[in-house]
């Protein structure tokens, strides 16, 4: 096994665009559902704090529980995907989201919310190894860049939809009805995927009887896997800062209203989605994926540093933050191509599961570090720290490139 070996080989024969588009669309829908579920609880935290007498530490712990379970489960889910295929794992994951929504509609206190976080974390765990196994096996090689672009784009749209969906329905009726509606949404997605299940079938990794003991873990000895993991951890720390603290920073430093600050985060996500769309074309026609990622993350880090100075004022800072989303988004598809090149044959699920668990670790760790900065009023230092983490991720991306050349 060596790092130059590519992951699951895409089909060699020409495949009709319609067939590739169907697979990409189905996987994108599933991925959007996953990101929607990241925010299954967070948009309604103020209501839970009011109704159940909770504080910020209580609700913050719910997100930590979610990402710890998702991250640890993601690494293990990759082995399951390689053994039994991606399709049944994907169905089980969405079923967990359905159970989480139903449980959320019936909670009467904090422990009920903890159960929702656990179920949602279990559901989120298998998505990246399952998604990328399907894309790598079922989409033709010339269209993989666009497939990864659509995958990232739908994830951002899932993030954007969740607050509007849950808060909007809560405003019209109540929060329990909002979770009933979310459960119906999951039922619809699961039904569609089951109906089109033939497009999600993947080959399994057959373990030969004479295979050396521990061969399933051999990929963990490859340094390139941990370089990929480090890249995800560092780049996600930056995203967590923007999602969690940018509105508070804009309000404290520039006097921006809560509505305008929240809109800036939505703009960041939408610009990120557009960046991923553009990045799909870049990834399709560029072989040096690591350099594309490095340039995109460097541009994003530079923009964050400018935001940290406060020189641009309120409006300029909000525009620069949105532009940061676009810059980072452009590198998204090339990032996934970079990981594909680092994946040994037959280990797609395991490698993607391990590497993407860095995302969950970043989401779990970042608030603990930068939350302390925010408590002390170090707003500029918080943005600077996010920029530094993104700059270091550039070194990690180039390290991946050197080890897959």
Question: Would you kindly provide a written description of the structure presented here, covering whatever features stand out?
Answer:
The chain has two domains: 17-201, Growth Hormone, Chain: A (Up-down Bundle); 219-405, Up-down Bundle (Growth Hormone, Chain: A), CATH 1.20.1250. 79% of the residues lie in helices and 0% in strands. It has helices at 17-38, 45-52, 56-84, 86-104, 110-124, 127-138, 144-172, 175-195, 223-254, 258-285, 289-309, 313-341, 348-375, 379-404. The two termini are 15 Å apart.
List the helices and strands and how they pair.
Blueprint: H1 17-38, H2 45-52, H3 56-84, H4 86-104, H5 110-124, H6 127-138, H7 144-172, H8 175-195, H9 223-254, H10 258-285, H11 289-309, H12 313-341, H13 348-375, H14 379-404
Helix pairs in contact: 1-5, 1-6, 1-7, 1-8, 3-4, 3-5, 3-6, 3-13, 4-5, 4-6, 4-8, 6-7, 6-13, 7-8, 7-10, 7-12, 9-10, 9-12, 9-13, 9-14, 10-12, 11-12, 11-14, 12-14
Q: What is this structure, in a nutshell?
A:
The protein contains 14 helices and no strands. By secondary structure, it is mostly helical.
Multimerization status: single chain
Q: What does the average pLDDT come to? A: 84
Report the portion of residues in β strands. under 5%
Sheet with the most strands? none
Looking at the structure, the CATH topology of the largest domain is Growth Hormone, Chain: A
Secondary structure category: mainly alpha
The Cα radius of gyration reads 20 Å
CATH architecture descriptor name of the largest domain? Up-down Bundle
SSE succession:
HHHHHHHHHHHHHH
Total number of helices: 14
* Count of individual beta strands: 0
Inertia-based shape? globular
CATH superfamily of the largest domain: MFS general substrate transporter like domains
Question: What is the CA–CA distance across the termini?
Answer: 15 Å
Question: What count of domains describes the coordinates?
Answer: 2
Instruction: Please bin the fraction of helical residues.
Output: over 70%
Name the CATH class of the largest domain.
Mainly Alpha
Low-confidence stretches: 1-13
């Amino acid at each position: 096994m060596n790092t130059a070996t590519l992951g699951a080989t895409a089909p060699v024969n020409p495949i009709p665009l319609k067939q590739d588009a169907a697979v990409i669309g189905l996987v994108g829908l599933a991925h959007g559902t996953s990101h929607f579920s990241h925010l299954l609880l967070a948009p309604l935290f103020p209501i839970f704090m009011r109704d159940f007498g909770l504080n910020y530490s209580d609700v913050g712990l719910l997100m930590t529980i979610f990402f710890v379970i998702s991250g640890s489960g993601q690494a293990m889910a990759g082995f399951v995907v390689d053994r039994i295929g991606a399709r049944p794992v994907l169905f089980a994951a969405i079923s967990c989201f359905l159970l989480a929504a139903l449980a959320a509609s019936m909670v009467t206190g904090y422990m009920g919310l903890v159960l929702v976080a656990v179920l949602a974390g279990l559901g989120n765990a298998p998505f990246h190894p399952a998604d990328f196994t399907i894309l790598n096996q079922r989409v033709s090689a010339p269209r993989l860049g666009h497939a990864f672009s659509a995958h990232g784009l739908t994830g951002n749209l899932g993030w954007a939809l969740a607050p509007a969906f849950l808060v909007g329905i809560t405003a019209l009726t109540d929060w329990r009805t909002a979770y009933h509606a979310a459960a119906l949404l999951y039922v619809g997605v699961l039904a569609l995927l089951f109906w089109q299940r033939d497009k999600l079938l993947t080959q399994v990794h057959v373990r030969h009887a004479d295979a050396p003991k521990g061969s399933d873990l051999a990929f963990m000895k490859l340094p390139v896997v941990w370089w990929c993991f480090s890249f995800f951890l560092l780049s996600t720390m930056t995203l967590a800062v923007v999602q969690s603290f940018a509105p508070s920073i804009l309000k404290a430093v520039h006097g921006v209203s809560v509505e305008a600050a929240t809109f800036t985060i939505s703009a960041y996500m939408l610009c990120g989605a557009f960046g991923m769309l553009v990045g799909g074309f870049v990834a399709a026609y560029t072989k040096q994926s690591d350099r594309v990622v490095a340039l995109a993350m460097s541009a994003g880090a530079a923009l964050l540093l400018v935001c940290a100075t406060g020189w641009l004022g309120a409006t300029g800072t909000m525009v620069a933050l949105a532009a940061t989303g676009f810059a980072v988004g452009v590198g998204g598809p090339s990032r996934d191509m970079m990981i594909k090149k680092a994946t040994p044959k037959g280990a797609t699920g395991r490698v993607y599961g391990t590497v993407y668990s860095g995302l969950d670790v970043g989401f779990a760790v970042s608030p603990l570090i930068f939350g302390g900065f925010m408590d002390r009023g170090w707003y500029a230092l918080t943005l600077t720290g996010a920029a530094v983490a993104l700059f270091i991720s550039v070194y990690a991306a180039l390290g991946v490139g050197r080890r897959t050349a």
